[in-house]
């Protein structure tokens, strides 16, 4: 099975390290155990809206904490590396498992999103939308590894 879009297997450990550190840092930031104002630096904002003054600006340098952006990037990059690195033995089963897990993750993600659109409101809904950036990738990784582990245990 030729999969040009997959990274070599050697990247998988790096991906797991980044994903794990990112998730730990993300949970720590979300539970306010980590100070979000610790990395305030000038950054380029291509769109900035101040809801208090109704001021909208484009392409402006603003001072912003980049800690949450760094954590989000670490989670996404780590997750992409884990999800799209080759297995030790890349065959039809691993290709099929990856494809089915990706479809399953997207369907489950949108079922959860539909449920929250109907039943969750205000800032809780906004928080769920933030988590929703990561859930397709996390569902995909969880399901593909779960099925792989289950199939390995069935073979033994």
Architecture overview:
Helix 1 runs antiparallel to helix 2. Strands 1-2 form a two-stranded antiparallel sheet. The longest helix has 28 residues. The chain has 156 residues and is of the alpha+beta class. It contains five helices and two strands, in the order αββαααα. 61% of the residues lie in helices and 14% in strands.
List the helices and strands and how they pair.
Blueprint: H1 12-30, E1 40-50, E2 55-65, H2 67-83, H3 92-119, H4 122-131, H5 135-155
Helix pairs in contact: 1-2, 2-5, 3-5
- How much of the sequence lies in strands comes to 5-15%
Taking pLDDT < 50 over at least 5 consecutive residues as the criterion, the unreliable ranges are none
Which sequence of SSEs, written as H and E, runs from N to C?
Answer: HEEHHHH
Compute the average pLDDT: 91
Shape assignment: globular
Main sheet properties: 2 strands, antiparallel
SS class: alpha+beta
Radius of gyration, in Å, reads 19 Å
Q: Compute the number of strand runs.
A: 2
Quote the distance from N terminus to C terminus.
Answer: 25 Å
> Tally the helices: what do you get?
5
């Amino acid at each position: 099975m030729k999969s040009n879009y997959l990274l070599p297997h050697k990247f998988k450990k790096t991906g797991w390290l980044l994903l794990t550190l990112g998730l730990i840092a993300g949970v720590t930031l979300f539970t306010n155990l980590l100070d979000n104002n610790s990395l305030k630096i000038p950054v380029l904002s291509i769109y900035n809206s101040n809801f208090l003054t109704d001021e909208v600006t484009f392409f402006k340098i603003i001072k912003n904490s980049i800690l949450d952006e760094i954590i989000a990037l670490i989670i996404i990059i780590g997750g992409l590396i884990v999800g799209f690195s080759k297995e030790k033995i890349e065959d039809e089963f691993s290709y099929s498992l990856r494809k089915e897990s990706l479809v399953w993750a997207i369907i489950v993600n949108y079922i959860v999103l539909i449920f929250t659109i109907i039943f969750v409101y205000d800032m809780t809904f906004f928080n769920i939308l933030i988590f929703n950036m990561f859930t397709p990738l996390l569902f995909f990784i969880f399901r593909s590894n779960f099925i792989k582990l289950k199939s390995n245990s069935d073979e033994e």
